[in-house]
Fold this sequence. Notes:
- By secondary structure, the protein is mainly alpha-helical.
- It has one domain (2-167).
- Helix content is 71%, strand content 5%.
- The protein has 8 helices and 2 strands.
- It has helices at residues 17-22, 25-40, 43-65, 69-74, 82-122, 125-138, 147-153, 159-167, and strands at residues 2-5, 12-15.
- Strands 1-2 form a two-stranded antiparallel ribbon.
- A hairpin with a 6-residue loop joins strand 1 (2-5) and strand 2 (12-15).
- The longest helix is centred in the middle third of the chain and has 41 residues, at 82-122.
- The two termini are 27 Å apart.
Amino acid sequence: NAYFTGFGSSKRVVFFDTLLDRLDGNEIEAVLAHELGHFKHHHVIKRIVLMFVVSFLGLALLGWLKNQGWFYEGLGVTLPSDYMALLLFLLASPVFLFLLRPLLASYSRKNEFEADEYAARNAEAKHLVEALVKLYRDNASTLTPDPLHSAFYDSHPPASIRISKLAKFTG
Length: 171
C-alpha cells in the first residue's frame, strides 16, 4: 500500500516495501500520481477539519446533555455529574456514530475517486487499473463487495467501480 501524509514541510508519500516489490515502474508511477492527487485536492487538511468539526459538535452535544435530566434518567442514573455525563456519553455515542459511518465512508470514497481522476490525467490510467487489481488481490479484498457493507464500512470504493470510472481515461 501507499499513502500521502503530513502538511507543511513534512509532506510525504509513503510506499510499503511490498508495493514496491509487487508493482512495476509504470504502476508505481500511477500510484504515486494517485497519492499526489490527495495532496493536490488537500484531502489530508480537509479530513482534519472534518474530524475537528465532528469532535466539536460531539463536545457541544455533551455539554448540552450534561444538563438534561432525561439523559441520566433514560440510562438509569440517579445521581447526575459531569463525570457520569462523560461516561454515559462515551457509552451511548457509538450507537449514534454508527449512523455517521456511511457519510464519512462516502466522503472518503469521494476523495479516492478524485485522486484516481488526478492520477488518470497525470499518468497512465491503465497502469493505475493494473496496480489496483494487484493491490486488491494482494490485500485479499474482494473485487465486488456487498454494496450495503461497502457503503457503511469501506473507505475505498470497490475495485470494479474504480476500474469502470478509470476506463473512460484509457482511450
